[in-house]
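Quick one - inputs below.
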Amino acid sequence: MSITEFDLIKRYFAVGKVSRNDVILGIGDDGAVLQVPHGKELVVSIDTLVAGIHFPEDTDPESIGYKAIAVNLSDMAAMGAEPAWATLSLTLPEADHNWLRAFSQGFFDLADQFNVQLVGGDTCRGPLSVTVQLHGFVNTGEALRRDTARPGDLIYVTGTLGDAGLALAIKQGKFAALQKGYEYLLQRLDRPVPRISEGLGLHGVAHAVIDISDGLASDLGHIIEASHVGATLYAGKIPVSPVFESYRKVIGENTWIDMAISSGDDYELCFTINPESQDMLHKRLPNIRYTNIGEINTSSGLRCVLENGYELVPASSGYDHFRGQ
Amino acid sequence: MSITEFDLIKRYFAVGKVSRNDVILGIGDDGAVLQVPHGKELVVSIDTLVAGIHFPEDTDPESIGYKAIAVNLSDMAAMGAEPAWATLSLTLPEADHNWLRAFSQGFFDLADQFNVQLVGGDTCRGPLSVTVQLHGFVNTGEALRRDTARPGDLIYVTGTLGDAGLALAIKQGKFAALQKGYEYLLQRLDRPVPRISEGLGLHGVAHAVIDISDGLASDLGHIIEASHVGATLYAGKIPVSPVFESYRKVIGENTWIDMAISSGDDYELCFTINPESQDMLHKRLPNIRYTNIGEINTSSGLRCVLENGYELVPASSGYDHFRGQ
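Output:
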């Protein structure tokens, strides 16, 4: 089996269904040429997924393709941006056609769904690694940021937390899977749904927004550090799925709630609003679960209060690639 | 030695001297927020360098940092774009402070020089790999492309060819280094000078432009394929440096000229112009050597004519990551 880099790109990466008017020149030159609409600012995010670090080596390639773009779409959601263009840098041990076909399928399934066009990229040989950069738009001056939380704000999260972390812990052999719901957990780990429409809905409502990639404690930590405020979380209010709930006794109360608070990869949004904005919030997020889990205050640091009144110290404040070296 | 990802970014990657007015929000949120000037189109390029593939494992980190941004600046030059913003995704086996300091130095030396601000990125643990994405501007409709060469055009290259390929061949033990000029060759391999001002000078003069990253034969091949034309090169006209010239006998005539034509990493520009534009070209590129090496014609394919009238078939049409697997 022999394939040139050029053929590889043509066969597997020039196959997206999206063809945007603002792409003047797409794949195939030294650079893409793109037109940002008048009155809009450009939002750019970049994320790399490395085999064995961000996903287990045996992850199916369709899920890798899906997730590589999903994590960047989640960043767009957290900025309140409308996604538009992607670039992809793919490092592969070998040009395996079945792998490439499945990867491409996962990638474009999600890209097409969110009207994202792949406009350029780079492929080379080496240890498996995927870098996606995404470009989107916000109205000038309206990007949602993490440094704008205010004392008195209520803290919300979309969806439920902990499913992806639980799935990973089971895959790593830390817990045995219960018969019911394991497929759901895997889906949550491998196929997170980017909260794009929710991010767009938060304009003019939310003060600070972040996506939960490293775990609630860690990512809310970024909000309070950037905003120079503190936060109190109520463990009993953390929203979890019925499947996650079913592991409560298996895992043990404290480890279980810590998993919901500390584990990453859920790609839900965490945001803060003025208490008076709750009515407006209900109108803006009609189709998704969202839950008030605490409040922003003036004291520094993050406190997590258990239902018995004790404070939980999260086992980890989220995944850090270089900590404890 | 322990460092968090956050500290690592602050210490080594929030240290550039450039602070651009069009960066609304830089490093530190889920995405950067950027303002493309009115009347300009955005040009985007992305390139990954993998240790052991794009550079020998023992390359000094300062050169890796330099080259990671240099190869993308070269793409900007080939598009006739003015560079503006960079993002960086860095995968590292470990957080080695000496390595990071040197890498950062090499990266920002060049970024600062070309008024490029690092606006975002990602760091993680894994096999050493560097992905840089660069963003620049062109006036609306004026990007320099590779699909616009016309029959009758003269083909030019900037600078000299073959130095980087020769340096790499010596490093790989294929040839012994001559005493004189080896430092110069290494400099050409590790520290290519992006031809940004030359790219900007080619607006309104050049028909088609590409940068020579994979070798002249390969990259000119992209021009003729995209433009649906053919080309004739004259081997005797290929510009080479005095150091490269000194290897002529050591390497042997045909292998030597093939190296100038086929080896990559020179990051010079190859472009085509109407013969009537030669006077204008002299005004536009006052400070650099540039050489007419052939012409575009209507027959398909690339021919390279030797000084004795025979045709040279290049040993390789440039580096391809997946060919011959």
